Each structure stands twice: as C-alpha cells, then as structure tokens.
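INFO batch 0412 | record 1 of 1 | parsing
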Amino acid sequence: MEQIIAQVIGGALGGAGGGKAVKGADMGNIGNLIAGAIGGGVGGQLLGGLLSGGTDIAAMAGNLVGGGVAGLVVQVVVGLILKKVRGA
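INFO prediction complete | emitting tokens
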C-alpha cells in the first residue's frame, strides 16, 4: 500500500512539473495533478519495480521517482492530446 501511495504522490508532483515545463501540455493545476497521479499509480508500478533497491528507503525513493517519471510522461501526453483535440 505504501508503494502505491508513494507512486501516486510522485506522479502528482511529476504531473505538476510536466505542466509547467511543457507549456503546450498544461491542463491547469488540478488537471496536471490528476493526470500525474493516475500516471504515477499505473506507470509507477512498472518503473518502480525496475528502480527500487533492496532497502526500505531505497524502495521508497524508487517508488517516488518511478511514479514521478510516469506521472510527468502521462500528464504531458494527455495535455498535448487534449490541446490538439480542442484545437488550441
């Protein structure tokens, strides 16, 4: 359970960062957080397993990083798709 929470938090932070870093993908603060949290929860399961180490602290850091990366990627992709669909 702690893994998923860490991944969702990391994803939300990654989504917020992605929205600010890629202006064309910005969906507003709430949209960025939601897309990032979803991406972090789902994608973090994949990336977190690859990055996590054997210790608890290393595993937690791996989950945060994995969730953050996945959240950032999902937020940017969803943001760009929505901008394209809306014609903005």
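INFO post-check: The chain has a mean pLDDT of 82.
INFO record closed
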